[in-house]
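Dear V.,

Thank you for sending over the compound details. I've combined the ligand you provided, zinc ion, with the protein sequence from our construct and run the structure prediction for the complex. I'm sharing the raw inputs here so there's no ambiguity about protonation or stereochemistry in the SMILES, which I know was a concern on your side last time.
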Amino acid sequence: MGKKTVLVGVVLLAIILAGVGFVFSFLSSQDRTTQSRQTFETSEAASSQAAVIQVVAGENFWGSLISQLGGSRTQVLSIVTDPNADPHEYESNSQDAQAIATAAFVIVNGAGYDDWALKLIAAGNAPNQVVLNVADLLGKKVGDNPHFWYNPYYVNATIAAMYKDLILIDPSDSAYFTQQYSSLNVSLGEYNQRIAEIRTEFASVKVAATESIFVYLANATGLDLMSPPAFMNAVAEGNDPPAQSVAEFQQLLENHTVRVLVYNSQTLTPITQSMETLASSNGIPIVAITETIQPSDVSFQVWMNAELLSLQNALNAQAMKS
Ligand SMILES: [Zn+2]
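Below is the predicted structure of the protein with zinc ion bound, written out as structure tokens.
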């Protein structure tokens, strides 16, 4: 491709992007400067260097990780980011369709969590587009618990797959990606450490959760999750839990069988709120967790570390009482 063709391409792309009112979430304004300078340098160098990889992540928990891994070689757009909306209910718009159609790399959660994204991918896209479907990677299907980012083993497996895919897309930057991969793993140290600490201090301690979102983390931390699966699954799917599971759940709180109640503060319903009220009136500490990153401008690790710390503190507070 000649210098002129590239420049025309860049100008056309700029017009298209402006036309559809694209909003890419850059890490900072400094990054934006770096990004545009790189685009310029790439065109000057007549495409001897690989261009910045356009990445779309269905949700910001995967978007945060790929953005930390891809660094300056990627430009990442996360679609589901609203901390006040239920991601299970997300409906895509034409901007999402445009973003997915033109991305070189798309990361979706799968397992029914973001079917809207799978539909957009199936609509036909940029040639050689690489798609990482986390559910497929983990051998999971629709109906399985889709909250894979709450499982530290799945998080590690997904980061490894992202790393492999980045090298597949841009082999000339493999040394850079290897360095980024190692830094990202180092920065997940506190997260892994805190999970290990909770396991050491509180394995087998009985807890309850209003939603299946906590199941993977309960397993990783060795906590004994007593709440009825029928209740947790129904709430995750947006359905009414069976009456018997509600009664069982209430007994766990009223009888002080569980030390802590974990609830999903992003998908509140009257039934989960009534469990929260019952827990507080019985003096059982409540730990709030969310589906997507909260606050939405922090990294995956900052968000997870804060949730793990509040879980650890709640378990500690109860351990002191008994
Ligand atoms: Zn959920």
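A first observation: The radius of gyration is 22 Å.

Warm regards,
I. M.
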